[in-house]
Amino acid sequence: MSAPDPGIYISPTQMYTEVRGLAEVVGRIEGKLDQALRENVDLRGDIQDHEKRLRELEAQPKVASVNTQVTALSTRMEKVEHQTWRSAGASAVIAGACVVLGQVFLPMVFR
Predict the structure, then answer these.
(1) What is the Cα–Cα distance from 68 to 76, expressed in whole angstroms?
(2) pLDDT (tens digit, 9 = 90+) per residue, 32-71?
(3) Given a cut of 70, is residue 91 above it in pLDDT?
(4) How many angstroms separate the most distant Cα atoms in the chain?
(5) Apex CA 91: angle with CA 86 and CA 80, to 5°?
C-alpha cells in the first residue's frame, strides 16, 4: 500500500496574490462589458429609429404599380414616335416641294 497524499498546502500569501490577480481580471472584464452595453444602447436607439422610419414609409400611400407606370411610359413613347414620323414625313414633303419649286423658279430668276 502506498502512503496517502498529504494534499496541497496553499499559503495565505499565495491565496491573497491569486485573489488580487482575479480581481484585476474581473475589473477588466467589467470595463469591457460596460463599454459593450453602452454600444448596445446606441445600437438599440439606431434600430428603433430605423424601424420608426420604415413604418412611416410603409404607411405612406402606395405609388402606382410598376406595370401601370410601364404602360403609361409605353403610351407616351408611342405618341412621341408618331409625332417624330409625322415630322420626318412633313420635312420630306417640304424638301421635295422646295426642289420642284427650285427647278421651276430658279431658271426664271437667272435668265
Answers:
(1) 12
(2) 988 888 877 777 778 888 899 888 888 777 665 777 888 8
(3) yes
(4) 148
(5) 30
> What pTM value is reported for the model?
0.36
Q: What is the mean pLDDT of residues 73-95?
A: 93
Quick one: DSSP state of residue 110?
A: T
Buried b (16+ CB within 10 A) or exposed e, 53-84: eeeeeeeeeeeeeeeeeeeeeeeeeeeeeeee
Instruction: List the chain domain ranges.
Output: 10-60, 63-111
Q: What is the Cβ-side half-sphere exposure of residue 46, based on CA atoms within 13 angstroms?
A: 6
pLDDT at position 103: 84
